[in-house]
Amino acid sequence: MIEYAQEILARLATELQPLVPAIAMTVSASILLIAVPDNIITMSRVMVNYLRGLRERTSSRKRQWQRAIANFIPWRMTSSKNMV
Question: Where do transmembrane segments lie in this chain (predicted)?
Fold first, then answer.
């Protein structure tokens, strides 16, 4: 039962997280509450792990954007001798 709830959580996180993380989190929490009503400790551990993973993915994505922007800006073209 726990594995089934975790699988549903993973699917929802994969499909909804890029669009609206808060909605994915709420829907996932609701499904876990329905699927595992008698094991709140396990549910909270699953949610904590989900939030940890979400934070790691978000910071990784942020670093990717920062790298992409840094690589895109043509720093050498803005040197003083190229300025008019």
Answer: 19-37
